[in-house]
Design a protein that fits this description.
Pfam families: SCO4226-like
Shape: globular
InterPro entries: SCO4226-like
CATH superfamily: ORF SCO4226, nickel-binding ferredoxin-like monomer
Organism: Acuticoccus sediminis
Mean pLDDT: 92
Strand order of the largest sheet: 2-3-1-4
Strand content: 25-35%
Protein name: DUF4242 domain-containing protein
CATH architecture: 2-Layer Sandwich
Number of strands: 4
Order of helices and strands: EHEEHEH
Distance between the termini: 33 Å
Low-confidence stretches: none
Radius of gyration: 14 Å
Number of helices: 3
Largest sheet: 4 strands, antiparallel
Helix content: 25-40%
Number of domains: 1
CATH class: Alpha Beta
Length: 99
Amino acid sequence: MELYVIRRAGAWPDLPELARAAETSTRVGNEMAGDVRWIRSYVVREPDGRVGTVCIYEATGPDAIREHARRVGMPASEIFPVLDTVVVRDDPQRAQAAE
């Protein structure tokens, strides 16, 4: 599997809707475990007030990501293969949780 960044722009009206989609995404991801693996997501407030995400997935390819999104009923607005990772610091949320 390769690493991908997926942009889901303005996909949800609010955080509760995103939470419901995340539950479905986890279930579908477990069904597709040989093809996709959700690593993490960064939740963003879109300019129009809706909620979007930037997600990190491992997948066999973009088609597997699109199929996962189709089954969940959410967009995969943009899919980018990750060429490299540069980590300067751990995510702040993880660092705070560890304290």
